[in-house]
Structure formats: structure tokens, C-alpha cells
Design a protein that fits this description.
single chain, about 150 residues, mainly alpha, two-stranded antiparallel ribbon, 7 helices, 4 strands
Length: about 150
Amino acid sequence: MLINGCGGGDDKKEEAKGFYIPEGLDSRTELRYRQYAVQGRILYKQHCANCHQEDGTGLGELIPPLAKSDYLEKNLQHVVCIIRNGLQGPVVVNGVEYNQPMPPNQQLKNIEIAEIATYITNAWGNKGEFITVQKAQEWLKSCEQEE
């Protein structure tokens, strides 16, 4: 199911603005998911859209796309670490290598990272999952151990 924050819709305009809702969420969990995704969209626009663009398409051969990104799908746990700690070195997204540093976002709270991750992994044609703050905290601990 695709939503745009205020209601459903499946035409192309709605799809461009909306985000995917994973199947099988009970009504309470779906409400929380919607709250995370809507807040994640706001935070994304504040902290990420300058480089990754508002529509998630990235910036040419400099900044990787998040829209329909195979990297997000395959590296969900690592994406949470990248949001917090940034990224140095090459990364391959949809078969294209990118090698621009991404600055860390140390100021973001765990809940904000969970909201951004929930939004970007379920927007622009991505079909991810609901990343709760508990899950984000667990993943962030594992990336601290990798350092």
C-alpha cells in the first residue's frame, strides 16, 4: 500500500510523493509506522535532501540515489550506521561506484535516525521495513563495535 501522509492513492503523482507501507502491520503498529515515515520525511528534507535531492535521485555521479536503491535494500543495518557516522570511501549503488564522503549526523537522536531510515527505505519505489527506535539503537550499538 502507498500513502502520502494524508490519504491513499496509486496514480504516478501520488507514488512520487508517497511511501510504501509494509504488509501485515496491525493498526497500532501501522499508525506508529506512518508517524515515523512522516517525521522521517521532514527530517530527510532538513538533513539529507541537499545532497540526495528531495526526490531521492542523488546528484549525478557524485551523490548516490536513494530512490530504488539496491544498496538500501541489501544494507539496511549499515544504512543506519551511515546516517549517524557518515561514510568515507567508495560505495556501489545500482551498479555505479560513488566516492564522495558523506558527513556524519552525530546530532541526530536515535529516534530521528529510525524515522529517516524508515522514510528513505520506503519512499521513491523502495519497499523496506519499519525501523523502530529499538531496532535502530541495536544496530547503532553494532556499528560502534565495528569502529
